[in-house]
Amino acid sequence: MPTLARPNAPASTRLLPTRFASALSAILALASVSASGSDSPIPSDDYAVLDAHPHNYWTRPLNDPFTKLKEDLDAGRVTIDQSNDIAFLHDLLAKLDIPVSSQLLVFSTTSLQLRFISPRNPRAIYFNEDVYVGFIPGGRIEVVSIDPEAGGIFYIFDIPRDRSPPVVERSNRCMNCHADSDTGDVPGIVLKSVVPGRTGGSLDAFRRNETGHAIPLEQRFGGWHLTGNHNIPKHWGNLIGRFSDGELLTQTLEPGSQFNWSNYPVATSDILPHLLLEHQTGFVNRAIEAHYRARTYLHEGNGRLSPEHAKEMDRQARLLTRYLLFADETRLPKAGIEGDPAYIEQFLASRRPDSEDQSLKDLDLNDRLFKYRCSYMIYSAAFQGLPDGFRHQVYRRLQEALDTDSPDPDYRYLPNAEKKAIAKILRETLPDFP
Predict the structure, then answer these.
(1) Residue 145: φ, ψ to 5°
(2) DSSP code, position 306
(3) Can you give the C-alpha Rg of the chain in angstroms?
(4) Whole-angstrom Cα distance, residue 210 to residue 74?
(5) b/e per residue 192-231 (b: at least 16 CB within 10 A)
């Protein structure tokens, strides 16, 4: 992430007025009946002109968690501990409600701060459902904060040394990577899996333009450290490479062998936050793309969707429903994974239980991530900020998928007992779920 900034503009109207949302709801209801079986998307350049109307990415008012914290910092209502860099990071994460145990370390130079990153000085990532923070010893703090309507908002700043508030800049150079084919051409989250050389530069890359829980485990973690009892026999984590006679050779790079763990708040880069970050990235990018498409198509149709666009939005609803229900989730290793106990405790602290103490955050960790296979990201800003009509179209498709009397064959992997539990959790923990 970079250093240039663009100013925010005065408040403007909401993206989707009520007439737009109701029109979308009605037309999508028809589209769900009449849509063809084609899953070919309308080309990306049809919806992703970010800085023009109706998106107005750089000038629309923002409502994401970090922007709110920035406003409090600028006004002097909030201060952050500046006694040292680790104390600053701890306090920042606490104010954003991000578990410090979510820490993941990446040593490939897949960042605009590449001059600071190497196997001797990894970059750390911390996250919750709505905010992602990057920290590099000696570098600048990076933030991706998810706005319900605009998507990812990118900030960068130095840790202050003089007791003054941090000078936070909204970054535009981050968009070079965070709004391209890796994210569906919308402001989203990027995850890379590469084979780094001895200094961190990429020698090979995997799963290009793909994110989410369907990525095979053997293609993940390249350029990242991986700790904990993960039982994955083959993966690209904890490796560096070199070419010899045209052949790529790799060797193990043990976490902490080239850097000092004391430069970071905790001594982990655990398997469970790795898997959850991948799941969240896939969800956020899909939800933001659907939002940008809906907004574009409604603007082009003056509040109405053309038949072609109605079919496309129904396709988006089907794709997002499948993702929410983990339809294509890669299976965990036969022995399962354990996960860092500290992270599990902090992750579960925000669970939303129903009257039988069941929640979408309840973990399985044997052959799959969750006991109840419907994503907790349904509570996130990325989903709850979707246009009303589209969000309710996803709800309708969820109801169809969870119907035990007339099961959709695409969801046969869900036992009836699990379907009933998911439906009950959604009814009792989502106020607008039908």
Answers:
(1) -120, 130
(2) -
(3) 22
(4) 37
(5) bbbbbbeebebbebbbeeebbbbbebebbbbbbbbbbebe
Residue with token string 């498409």: 293
H/E segment holding residue 250: strand 247-252
Which helix or strand (DSSP H or E) is residue 125 part of? Answer: strand 123-127
**Residue 38 clears pLDDT 70, i.e. is over it:** no
Is residue 335 within 8 A of residue 322, CB to CB? The reply is no
- Contact present, 171 and 5 (Cβ < 8 Å): yes
Mind listing the pLDDT tens digit for each residue in 336-366?
999 999 999 999 999 999 999 999 999 999 9
Closest CA to 86 of 18, 136, 155: 136
Q: Specify which residues 141 forms β-bridges with.
A: 157
Structure token digits, residue 68: 């709110």
pTM for this model (two decimals): 0.88
- Distance, in Å, from the CA atom of 89 to the CA atom of 264, rounded to the nearest integer, reads 9
3-class state of residue 321 by DSSP? helix
pLDDT tens digits, one per residue of 185-219: 688 888 888 888 888 888 888 777 788 999 999 99
